[in-house]
Target: Probable alpha-L-glutamate ligase
Amino acid sequence: MKIGVLSQFPELYSTRRLVEACESRGHEALVINPINCYMNINSVKPSIHLAGAEVPQLDAVIPRIHTSVTFYGCAVVRQFEMLGVFAANDSISIARSRDKLRALQLLSRKGIGMPITGFANKPHDIPDLINMVGGPPLVIKLLEGTQGIGVVLAETRKAAESVIEAFLGLKANIMVQEFIKEANGSDIRCFVVGDKVVAAMKRQGPDGDFRSNLHLGGHGEKVRITPQERKTAVAAVKAMGLSVAGVDILRSNRGPLVLEVNSAPGIEGIEQATGIQVAEPIVEYIEKMVAARKANHQVIA
Ligand code: ADP
Model:
């Protein structure tokens, strides 16, 4: 097969590992920067061009769309879909999971555990918003934040009110969340491919930080997850419509609580922490799906 890895960063570990996994399984891999693609959208022969030439017909793409370019990146994935190319994560599901409010609403509709979360747009009734999520201590998050930046723990009502007021005053979109103290500054990253958790790591934040993000100095180690955690991770990925995703889970007294479903999960951290290869199962999954699609088309024809 010819597989496109849609990434702006060919030198990144994750991109390199995906290319390596494609090649080691006998496929040709092309790294395509989605941001440099330009598209001809018409009803007769839609196409995608890059650097003056048409992108060759691919069998599949692995989208690794950075959060800063979700809008254009998803349009490029959609164009590949229009050309009949299989996308390991489809454009609609990527967009869905990037909208933090929508993603949490979808998880809640499916009855998947999550921390009690409140959203507000205007600073009209901050005390009630704080009560809604059970009062302090609570976590306030900037919706535009990633990698733990813009995630604040407010231990008192006064602190919570000031932070919420400040964020809303700056017209930032925020969510206010129950603080899961018993998670002890750690979370579980489950790497899901298809309907399986192929690897899981526990991430622990540096001393004194409740955030476990590796980018903030946290460290990861292999962890055995419970059947309930496994089920929750797979259900969360399904709720988004994704096939390849990282699910962040907090271990709480009332069971696993999903924080986020990431459609372009980092490969380096989890492979290094667990010693498990996660790129190869992605390519295996694509092989299975493309073969199934071909078989279906034959039946229809
Ligand atoms: P980001 O998407 O920016 O990484 P997260 O929502 O994942 O933001 O939060 C970053 C980290 O902060 C999480 O990995 C987790 O360790 C911690 N955290 C986030 N929300 C809560 C919460 N409600 N209770 C306890 N810890 C939390």
